[in-house]
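User: Okay, second chain of the day. Same drill as before: sequence in, structure tokens out.
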Amino acid sequence: MLLKNRVYQVLSGESTNRLSRVVSLCLVALILLNVLAVMAESVTWISQSYGTWLVGFEWVSVSIFTVEYLLRFWACTSLPQYRAPIAGRLHYVFTPLALVDLLAILPTLLMWGGVDLRILRVLRLTRMLRLAKLGRYSKAIQTLGQVVRLKHEELVLSLVLMLFMLVVASSLMFMVENQQQPEAFSSIPATMWWTVMTLTTVGYGDVFPITTSGKFLASGIAVLGIGLFALPAGLVASAFVELRGLQQTHLATCPHCGKNLDTAPGIPESEC
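Assistant: Same drill. Structure tokens below.
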């Protein structure tokens, strides 16, 4: 049991000793190198000249990630929520981070197993999912995840509002411009390309209104787009401030008695 706890603490980064830091840094470096390797593999001359090296690096990486996954699977029962030997491990396998770990190695393992499917050629690109493994080792990414969970209802509402605005604006622009530009604004789905470009203020210029009413409508949509996409940014910023306040409140509270350490400093732990 002590060995399981030790393995879990080292892999999760909860331990503050040197071994845990070294393991975390090595895994982060390996993840980044894998992303660079996938990118380099898409360059023809690199793939032709160093293909053998890239394949060897893939073997080493997947072997290390597989060992890491198996160790996590074995040591997860050291946590209270996964205490049951079988049910606990099944519960762990379907957690988001465990699924990311599995998807990072599964496509390569399937190809090594001799499964010859065309779809597996596409699945090779899922090796980029190894970048998601950085979430285990980055406090900033973990904080961002907490922010999304804290404001998920508001963020979903803002997304629904964006989709509603997209449909309404595309419908209005289609009705205004279709007769003058039947090729550019041939249908509402086709008009959505222009609407997305306008709402995001990108405006490639390949499709644009030519009627007076269309130009006025486009101006209003562009202005609304600025405010519409500023809404999620404001929600995320406020969530960061709120989360930071909660963290400071937690740090300023005595874990034994719950007293505020700022207003009552110097209280001996025996008197809590």
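Residues 212-251 form the longest helix (40 residues).

User: Thanks, on to the next one.
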